[in-house]
Design a protein that fits this description.
The chain is α+β, with helices and mostly antiparallel strands. The chain has nine helices and 14 strands. Helices cover 28% and strands 16% of the residues.
């Protein structure tokens, strides 16, 4: 293992973060670990592979695996209509400039899995943010199921838009499996992969990274980071806590399946299809922020962007970095992952700060990626 701590240290200092964990693995072994700094300002506890982070939207990957398992077992089909399982979908409405109008297309499982159902997040949609406020709806991050009962922003299938579809996909898993999403994932994903530190609430003995928020002057201030005691469902879109080690185990299983292993949480043919473009001619759109304290503009990659069942699909190679047809995604507290199928590696870079896509955090993650691939090329 190379570590790259010294190459990353100047970027960490520039970011102002107390610490970060960056790591890469092949199908069966850890390839690199760069663990810098501490879990919090003033703490003597160092960041490590076993530090617990709120991984936020990386939860969507685990929920996608659950849906794909149900499809493998022929308990669900991508073309199935969500309304067949969840009553909310029987009378959907679309938020337009002239008010709410009926949805004319039925939402399918495929729509939920690919962010083409029409849902959004108020962080990146001013009309939706205004509607949520006007209707006194809970915020999407509230952990309350009622927060999901919001209108669509367009007719299903018309475009790609990042939103709460995977939270609904998690409820679909619950409806079919007859148990909570947490129970399903624990039995069918986490326990088989020995992901013992992953769940919808942190373990009692977890060593957690503190969450910080960037202030107007550039400094970092402590932000609330307690597990939500009022949540009333397992949020398949953003609810999980996990360690970098655990997330790597899930990514490695997907890698091994891609290489032909039939002893994984998904079968090879499922992974082969799931990693492909799932939105046809539609494009993943950049989304301007409406809440700069929570996220910068949602601009994830400069190249043509598509969506797989696992996350963002990069049809083009990144200069000095990951190969073409890699997949990636991230959580709003600046936790990132990618799987490079051609290079046979998976990587994570976990910080714990807001806003999402903070330029100084992106610079740090980008430097790690360049160091990692330069080291691979050097042998």
């Amino acid at each position: 293992m190379n570590g790259f701590e010294e190459q990353l240290r100047p970027a960490l200092l520039e970011s102002g973060l107390p610490g970060i964990v960056c790591a890469a693995a092949g199908p069966n072994a850890l390839l690199d670990l760069a663990s810098l700094g501490h879990i919090a300002f003033g703490s003597s506890e160092r960041m490590s592979l076993d530090t617990t982070f709120w991984i936020a939207s990386i939860t969507k990957l685990a929920t996608a695996v659950a849906v794909l398992q149900l499809v493998e077992r022929k308990r669900l089909r991508f073309e199935d209509e969500a309304a067949d399982y969840l009553p909310f979908f029987r009378d959907l409405e679309v938020l337009t400039e002239v008010g709410l109008v009926p949805a004319t297309t039925r939402v399918t499982v495929q729509h939920l899995m690919t962010h083409t159902a029409g849902f959004g997040y108020e962080t990146w949609s001013r009309p939706l943010a205004e509607h949520v406020l006007l209707q006194n709806l809970p915020a999407a991050r509230s952990g309350l199921r009622r927060s999901l009962e919001r209108p669509l922003l367009f007719q299903p299938g018309d475009m790609w838009n990042y939103g709460i579809g995977m939270d609904w996909a998690g409820l679909l898993v619950e409806r079919i499996a007859g148990c909570s999403l947490g129970e399903y994932l624990r039995t069918h994903v986490f326990e088989p992969l020995q992901m013992h530190s992953t769940g919808f609430a942190p373990r009692a003995d977890a060593i957690r990274a503190a969450l910080y928020a960037r202030q107007a002057g550039g400094s970092l201030a402590s932000a609330p980071n307690a597990a939500n005691p009022d949540r009333d469902f397992d949020a398949g879109g953003a609810g999980l806590y996990a360690t970098p080690r655990d997330v790597l185990r899930l990514l490695q299983s997907i890698l091994r399946a891609a290489q032909g292993s039939t002893q994984e949480v998904l079968q090879p043919q499922t992974v082969a299809e799931a990693r492909r473009n799932q939105i046809g001619l539609l494009e993943v759109r950049d989304l301007p922020t409406c809440a700069p304290e929570r996220s910068s503009d949602l601009v994830m990659s400069p190249d043509t962007k598509k969506w797989s069942h696992f996350g963002l699909l990069h049809p083009e190679a990144q200069p000095g970095g990951r190969s073409a047809n890699s997949i990636s995604w991230a959580g709003i507290a600046n936790t990132f992952f990618w799987i490079d199928f051609d290079a046979g590696l998976a990587a994570v870079a976990f910080a714990q700060s807001l806003p999402f896509l903070d330029p100084s955090v992106l610079a740090l993650v980008g430097r790690y990626e360049r160091c990692l691939y330069a080291g691979l090329r050097a042998g």
